[in-house]
Amino acid sequence: MSLFSKLFGGKGTPEVEPELYKGFRIYPAPQQADGGYLLGARIEKDLDGDTKVHHLIRADRFQSADEVAPYAILKAKQVIDEQGDRLFG
């Protein structure tokens, strides 16, 4: 089963375990675009009793959704390191 199938199986919700990093949950979320996939990730964190969500989309293109996941996680970690909780506004 491809990573894309795992991420966007039957109901469109991720079936894979998130990557945990500094209290954040990172879900790779490739975005289909002309000629491939854009780098995307969903970053979540529980703050003050609410689940905060940030959708990360980058212009980086990949040939397949399976290629995106490792780069999406690396980019999400970089954004978390730079912005921390400010990521959620």
Automatic annotation (TrEMBL):
It holds the Pfam family HlyU. InterPro entries: Transcription_activator_HlyU (IPR018772). This is Transcriptional activator HlyU. The lineage of its organism: Bacteria, Pseudomonadati, Pseudomonadota, Alphaproteobacteria, Rhodobacterales.
